[in-house]
């Protein structure tokens, strides 16, 4: 059956929060399913294939970091992490694991809704259908199809990693400052994400098999930012 509205999965052991968000999100044409236990959430994810996951960090049995790792094994769905702890390092670890955004508790439902809509919009945004793929030696990026391959093998990238790759690859070998990357990948806590740009680039490099000292694709410009150095194929 075709979905009539985006499907959001909340994995959080707070029953009351789930009830409140289900009612609130429904007013804005978002269907929210709530799992109070992490393993129930993973089962629901496999069965329902939601458009986005809201994931609490502090839960019994499995914490949110472990659940995030398991979700990333199952797919590249956008993830917003929640935490009652204000520790910046928790937020950075969440982003390292592939979370797309982070919300501290307590929060206003209206702000969470705005974050959800923004992340969904980024995940679904696509260039024109006739936009040609970006091609480099060994690397092909189909921005319209949201796919990339390296030496003929598909790359397993999160939504934000893919956005970062497209941003760098389409920069025309121009140096992109960290603030420029942050502004492009909008929607995140700037104070947290600005400290995580280097981490995200490092994760992308790992998936590209890129050597920091002898880069094939991404070069660090000390004190400035990053430059995509591969020559485009015509």
Any key phrases for this structure?
about 230 residues; alpha/beta; Rossmann fold; Arc Repressor Mutant, subunit A; five-stranded parallel beta sheet; four-stranded antiparallel beta sheet; 9 helices; about 40% helix
Kindly describe this structure.
The chain has 234 residues and is α/β, with parallel strands linked by helices. The protein has two domains: 7-124, Response regulator (Rossmann fold, 3-Layer(aba) Sandwich), CATH 3.40.50.2300; 134-228, Arc Repressor Mutant, subunit A, CATH 1.10.10. It is 40% helix and 20% strand. It contains nine helices and twelve strands. The chain has helices spanning 15-26, 38-48, 64-74, 88-96, 109-124, 159-169, 178-184, 190-193, 197-208, and strands spanning 7-11, 31-35, 52-56, 79-83, 101-104, 134-136, 139-142, 147-150, 153-154, 176-177, 218-221, 225-228. The strands form three sheets. Strands 2-1-3-4-5 form a five-stranded parallel beta sheet, sandwiched between helices. The protein has a four-stranded antiparallel beta sheet with strand order 6-7-8-9, covered by helices on one side. Strands 10-12-11 form a three-stranded antiparallel beta sheet. A hairpin with a 2-residue loop joins strand 6 and strand 7. Helix 2 runs parallel beside helix 3. The longest helix is centred in the middle third of the chain and has 16 residues, at 109-124. The protein is elongated. It starts with 6 loop residues before the first strand and ends in a 6-residue tail after the last strand. The relative contact order is 0.10. The model has no long low-confidence stretch (mean pLDDT 85).
């Amino acid at each position: 059956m075709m979905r009539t509205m985006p499907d959001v999965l909340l994995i959080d052991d707070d029953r009351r929060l789930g009830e409140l968000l289900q009612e609130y999100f429904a007013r804005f044409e978002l269907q929210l399913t709530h799992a109070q236990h992490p393993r129930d959430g993973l089962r629901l994810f496999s069965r329902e294939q939601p458009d986005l996951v809201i994931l609490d960090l502090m839960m019994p049995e499995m914490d949110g970091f472990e659940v995030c790792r398991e979700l990333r094994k199952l797919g590249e769905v956008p993830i917003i992490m929640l935490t009652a702890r204000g520790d910046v390092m928790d937020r950075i670890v969440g982003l390292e694991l592939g979370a797309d955004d982070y919300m501290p508790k307590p929060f206003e439902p209206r702000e969470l809704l705005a974050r959800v809509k923004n992340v969904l919009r980024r995940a679904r945004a696509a260039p024109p259908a006739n936009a040609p793929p970006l091609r480099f030696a060994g690397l092909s990026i189909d921005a319209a199809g949201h796919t990339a391959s390296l030496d003929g093998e598909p790359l397993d990238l999160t939504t934000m990693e893919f956005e970062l790759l497209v941003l760098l690859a389409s920069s025309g070998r121009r140096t992109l400052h960290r603030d420029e990357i942050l502004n492009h990948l909008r929607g995140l806590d700037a104070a947290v994400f600005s400290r995580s740009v280097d981490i995200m680039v490092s994760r992308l490099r790992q998936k590209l098999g890129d050597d920091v000292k002898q880069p094939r694709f991404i070069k660090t410009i000390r004190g400035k930012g990053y430059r995509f150095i591969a020559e485009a194929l015509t």
